[in-house]
Design goal:
seven-stranded antiparallel sheet, binds fe (ii) ion, about 300 residues, Jelly Rolls, 26 strands, mainly beta
Length: about 300
């Protein structure tokens, strides 16, 4: 017989702060923040928008480097464009995911699409940073670009609970994205009064970030509202319920991953294990060893 399932409860609530990022776009950021530097193995969670931009207003993150971790971009609304030092470029639309393993290093730009910058429009999405273990910090960069049509979705029989499975498995549906360490990344939508129990293996640290409405986590009904991150305690499953009194569905990201038991040396876009490796990364970047973006039409 299997072991008895144990439900995870909320150990801590962290309220996201607002922060300017890149060239000045506003994000809601539960971490890193003062007193909560990371949600091991996740290094950062940014909710971009939702924001309505006028013509000429939308800005992004022009050329910048990364080394030693992964950046995962998931859009709900709007359009993003990216290009990088390996000559890779593409666009992201609603529901699309880009899972970029920076590994040894890339220089890239992440901007709202030219059309959105020119004409204005609505932008809403997420970027998370996933740490890499020492053995993979300098692996060759890898991209997994998955259009919305290929992100597995599932729902309960009554259709009141829906999930997009970016990483891990939910409601019998397995993600198509491969992760370096075990990761769960799921976008859940819960109708008011609906409920679901999702297994989350005991060895994973688990977090719930609510971005719309409110949600009850665990049988004790701890309420988590939009803009709050719940740090969950130990257990083998998490119970999620849409707040019964709510008018709108509760929407949340369920994040879980195997914590890395390694030192973290962090400096802006570089996340390594030692200060020496950080100095090396800065030096490599300055010498152009992380590459530069070549633009045929650019004038730099
Ligand atoms: Fe980036």
């Amino acid at each position: 017989m299997g072991k008895t399932a144990t439900e995870r409860t909320v150990e801590r609530l962290v309220t996201a702060h607002r922060q300017r990022e890149g060239a000045g776009f506003v994000v809601r950021r539960p971490f890193p923040t003062y007193g909560f530097e990371m949600a091991n193995p996740f290094l950062l969670l940014d909710e971009m928008g939702p924001a309505d931009y006028g013509p000429g207003e939308a800005v992004g993150a022009p050329d910048h480097p990364h080394r030693g971790f992964e950046t995962v971009t998931y859009l709900l609304e709007g359009e993003f464009e990216h290009e990088d030092s390996a000559g890779h470029r593409g666009a992201l639309g609603p529901g699309d995911v880009q899972w970029m393993t920076a590994g040894d290093g890339v220089v890239h730009s992440e901007m709202p699409s030219a059309r959105l910058r020119a004409e204005g429009g609505r932008l809403h999405g997420f970027q998370i940073w996933v740490n890499l273990p020492a053995r993979a910090k300098r692996m060759p960069p890898r991209y997994q670009e998955v259009p919305a049509s290929r992100i597995p979705a599932a729902s309960t029989e009554d259709g009141r609970v829906q999930v997009r499975v970016i990483a891990g498995e939910a409601l019998g549906t397995r993600a198509v994205i491969e992760t370096v360490i075990p990761i769960i990344y799921q976008d859940w939508k819960l109708s008011p009064g609906s409920e679901v129990v999702q297994p989350v293996a005991a060895e994973l640290a688990a977090y719930v970030y609510v971005y719309q409405g409110s949600v009850q986590v665990s049988a004790d009904g701890r309420k988590v509202s939009a803009g709050q991150l719940a740090v969950l305690g130990p257990g083998t499953e998490v119970r999620l319920a849409g707040a019964a009194e709510s008018k709108e569905p509760g929407r949340l990201l369920l994040l879980a991953g195997k914590p890395l038991d390694e030192p973290v040396a962090r400096y802006g876009p570089f996340v390594m294990n030692t200060e020496q490796e950080i100095s090396e990364a800065i030096d490599d970047y300055r010498r152009g060893r992380l590459g530069v973006i070549s633009r045929a039409s650019a004038s730099h």
